[in-house]
Amino acid sequence: MRPDAHTVLAPFRTNLDEVPKVGGLQAKDGWVNMQVQFLISEKTCGSDKLLVGWTVLPPGAQHDRHRHFNCDEFWIVVRGEGVMYTEDGERPSRAGDVVFTPRGHWHGFRNTSNEDVVLVWGWSGAGSLEAAGYESVEGGRTH
């Protein structure tokens, strides 16, 4: 349940099984066959400065090169391997990698393996996709 604007935030707990997958993410906007959940967000608990997400990328799935104007992003590769996109090209990435991308820098990830890739990730400075500011190289500006 999302608190209204006058409610003081309280500690919050959730579980992957309790959070629906984000709908409406389209390949034309850079979200290619991804399963995304916003675990901590403005919608789930009123957090407007932090969003924590969980993403599963099946084999061949990817998040095209994109950037955020209003937040920094981190991700941790929990399982699997693939290629991360940077402003300088592509680099291999595997379980155990921790990546930080400051706002305004291009980044993304593609699963190049035969198993699912699981990423835990987050934004500092925004609690929603709309607040994060989002531009995809392949899909154009969406927010």
Summarize the structure.
This protein has 143 residues and is mainly β. The chain has helices at 42-45, 129-132; strands at residues 31-32, 35-40, 50-57, 62-67, 72-79, 81-86, 89-94, 98-101, 107-111, 117-124, 135-136, 140-141. Strands 1, 4, 6, 7, 9, 11 and 12 form a 7-stranded antiparallel sheet that branches. The chain has a 5-stranded antiparallel sheet with strand order 2-3-10-5-8.
Largest sheet: 7 strands, antiparallel
Q: For the terminal residues, how far apart are their CA atoms?
A: 24 Å
Shape: globular
Structure annotation, total helices: 2
Strand content: 35-45%
Strand and helix order: EEHEEEEEEEEHEE
- Summing up helix and strand content along with how strands pair, one would put the structural category as mainly beta
List the uncertain runs: none
Query: What does the average pLDDT come to?
Result: 92
SSE layout:
Layout: E1 31-32, E2 35-40, H1 42-45, E3 50-57, E4 62-67, E5 72-79, E6 81-86, E7 89-94, E8 98-101, E9 107-111, E10 117-124, H2 129-132, E11 135-136, E12 140-141
Antiparallel strand pairs: 1-4, 2-3, 3-10, 4-9, 4-11, 5-8, 5-10, 6-7, 6-9, 11-12
